[in-house]
Amino acid sequence: MPIKLSVNVNKFATLRNARGGNNPNVLQVAQDCEHFGADGITVHPRPDERHIRYSDVYAIKKHIQVELNIEGNPLEEKFVQLVLDVVPAQVTLVPDAIGQITSNHGWDTIANKKYLSEILATFKKAGIRTSIFVDPSAAMIAGAKETGTDRIELYTEHYTANYSTNKEVAIQQYIIAAEKANELQLGINAGHDLDLMNLQYFGKHIPQLLEVSIGHALVCDAIYLGLQNTIQLYKRQIHEL
Ligand code: PXP
């Protein structure tokens, strides 16, 4: 099975919000991403709605055929309600603080075991596949298994930050983490700062990888290369392994 590319459309919403109008039209962008070959659409609503808005998520779900992945912190009641209303294919729980620029760490799955187990059970009962964002740590992955999640999303910042210095070293802890996840029969997603330079090497060394969600670099590349071309270039990185 080829690795799936889920395009995070938050940055398009950031651009739209800069002027207060509807340009670019985020719903149209999500539909175009699907048309251009994206296997899924990811949104990461935050309480201040500074990029994607809750209303965007309802609209996007209605107008796309590919999988919708909603990311966010379930501590927000509004987030939980949104997920239960929209019923996406997947929810990815991320422990980001209010106002944080972007996610910068995975869950402590041991300290939050009870909380995560309860909230994941709520989503699973609604028929939604669940994933939790974790650092590449065997202990955190073992803890994730205890919560009942279907998948983990590996936080790839450490890999991407060290890729250009020494990619062989940078990938090591991810290989070990993926082996642990496989042993425990957890599905593996990955994301954060993946780009056209570092994506293929990651996919090659984590053969059990199911899905990557990519936003920032893909949107930056689209400025120069165009959205259709960019999506095809990203797909080629993960399909030609
Ligand atoms: N996965 C999670 C949990 C995230 O929070 C983000 C950023 O919102 C991404 C993936 C995508 O990261 P990037 O925008 O760097 O591609």
How would you summarize the topology of this molecule?
Elements: E1 4-8, H1 10-17, H2 26-35, E2 40-43, H3 54-63, E3 67-72, H4 77-86, E4 90-93, H5 113-125, E5 129-134, H6 138-147, E6 151-155, H7 157-183, E7 187-191, H8 199-205, E8 209-214, H9 216-225, H10 227-239
Parallel strand pairs: 1-2, 1-8, 2-3, 3-4, 4-5, 5-6, 6-7, 7-8
Helix pairs in contact: 2-3, 3-4, 5-6, 6-7, 9-10
Q: Can you give a write-up of this model?
A:
The protein has helices at 10-17, 26-35, 54-63, 77-86, 113-125, 138-147, 157-183, 199-205, 216-225, 227-239; strands at 4-8, 40-43, 67-72, 90-93, 129-134, 151-155, 187-191, 209-214. It is α/β, with parallel strands linked by helices and 241 residues long. The chain has one domain: TIM Barrel, CATH 3.20.20. An eight-stranded parallel barrel has the order 1-2-3-4-5-6-7-8, surrounded by seven helices. Strand 2 (40-43), helix 3 (54-63) and strand 3 form a beta-alpha-beta unit. The radius of gyration is 17 Å and the shape is globular. The chain starts with a strand and ends with a helix. The mean pLDDT is 96. Bound molecules: pyridoxine-5'-phosphate.
CATH topology: TIM Barrel
Largest sheet: 8 strands, parallel, barrel
Low-confidence stretches: none
| Class from secondary-structure proportions | alpha/beta
**Briefly, what CATH class?**
Alpha Beta
Count of DSSP strands: 8
Bound molecules: pyridoxine-5'-phosphate
N-to-C terminal Cα separation, in Å? 11 Å
Order of helices and strands: EHHEHEHEHEHEHEHEHH
Strand order of the largest sheet: 1-2-3-4-5-6-7-8
CATH superfamily: Aldolase class I
User: How much helicity do the residues have?
Assistant: 40-55%
Measured on Cα atoms, how large is the radius of gyration? 17 Å
Q: How many domain modules?
A: 1
Shape: globular
Counting H and I runs of at least 4 residues, what is the number of helices? 10
